Amino acid sequence: MRTYETIYIVNPEATGDAYAAIVDKFKGVLTEQGASIIKVDEWGVRKMAYPIKKQTRGSYVLTVFEAQPEVIKEFERRMRIDENIMKFQTVYLEKGFEASAPAEAQEAEAAVEQEEKAE
Amino acid sequence: MAFEKPAGRRPAGAGAPRRRFVRRKGCRFCADKTMKIDYKEIRTLRYFISERGKIVPRRISGNCAEHQRKVCEAIKRARNIALLPFTAGHAID
After folding, report:
1. How is domain B28-87 classified at the CATH fold level?
2. Nearest neighbour of A50 by CB, restricted to B36, B42, B85
3. pLDDT tens track for A51-73
4. Is B36's CB within 8 Å of A100's CB?
5. Which CATH code, of 3.20.20.150, 3.40.430.10, 3.30.70.60, 3.40.50.2000, is assigned to A2-118?
6. ipTM of the assembly?
7. Of B36, B43, B82, which is closest to A58 when you measure between CB atoms?
């Protein structure tokens, strides 16, 4: 098993139930293939550095999970199909998850700050 | 005008020495081992991109080779997922 981290941007027009359904759906895609999810972090809607699919905002979701390499292929294929996923990126965590834990706490703060600035 | 540049090295007046006056900053990641280079931490990475969104070269940022490589990688990942801009041009909102 390897540790991976996928970050994907959900279309901000999908709110409430629609949004929750998308996040759940992709959690399901991972678990049904035998991957174990370590963490799901929803950053919420934030401004993107450049527009994607004519949207300037996007809802970021960060997923950390342990899986076999083959799982990634299927997971990414499913994300390509879903129109609500505007972009995604999977990174292999060589050092496992623990190493990146403190960094994420800071990032959460940074995200909050950014939103405050935006307002 | 083409001669401006080679001449530019000397003239600064004020008796500037031949050496360039840029002080060499040490690598901040080597100095502070607790600092992590992560593509999600754009606050740290912001320091290493210019206003135009370009990656700041090592001779200016002062990073060591190893850390510059990691910063470079992190910036490219952040760009891919729209956390950092590729250029300032498309920041129309």
Report:
1. 30s Ribosomal Protein S18 (4.10.640)
2. B85
3. 999 889 999 999 999 999 899 99
4. yes
5. 3.30.70.60
6. 0.74
7. B82
